[in-house]
Design a protein that fits this description.
Elements (H helix, E strand, L loop, with lengths): L3 E9 L3 E5 L3 E5 L2 E9 L6 H10 L9 H8 L3 E9 L4 H9 L20 E4 L2 H13 L1
Antiparallel strand pairs: 1-4, 1-5, 2-3, 4-6
Helix pairs in contact: 1-2, 3-4
Length: about 140
């Protein structure tokens, strides 16, 4: 299985209160969110398929921070960017942060020293452009 770094762009159509394990409760404004993760385990990018299934209500188990956003709110996946075989998760998250602020400190970044791997933007097109640029760079 091919793995690498991915970023999921999620549409959150209404404000939500999200409880994420040890990160606690957070108020999320509506808009678009970019979550950057890595998929280097045995399933590779099948992890992204799992995120789609969770967002569609076809799975219940929550393993990662993003699972709480996708499974416990009205959030829907808009698009996914992938960088096959590239271990650039933190670099991509840092570059996206230049365009879109962190909303939940530590979200998706429990195994690194990044502020977070979840970023918010009100404008879908601007966020998608920042995500694509980060993956292409």
């Amino acid at each position: 299985m091919v793995g690498g770094t991915y970023t999921i762009v999620v549409n959150l159509p209404e404000p939500e209160t999200l409880t994420v394990g040890s990160l606690g409760r957070h108020e999320l404004p509506p808009g678009y969110y970019a979550y950057t993760g890595s998929a280097f385990g045995p399933g590779g990018f099948k992890r992204v398929d799992r995120h789609h299934e969770l967002a569609a209500g076809e799975r219940e188990a929550r393993h990662w921070h993003i699972d709480y956003l996708l499974g416990d709110t009205a959030a829907r996946i808009e698009t996914v960017a992938r960088s096959p075989e590239a271990e650039i998760e933190c670099a991509v998250a840092r570059e996206i942060a230049e365009t879109a602020p962190v909303v939940v400190e530590g979200f998706g970044a429990s195994d690194c020293d990044c502020p977070a791997h979840l970023h918010h933007h009100a404008n879908r097109d601007e966020l998608v452009a920042a995500v694509r640029e980060a993956h292409d760079g």
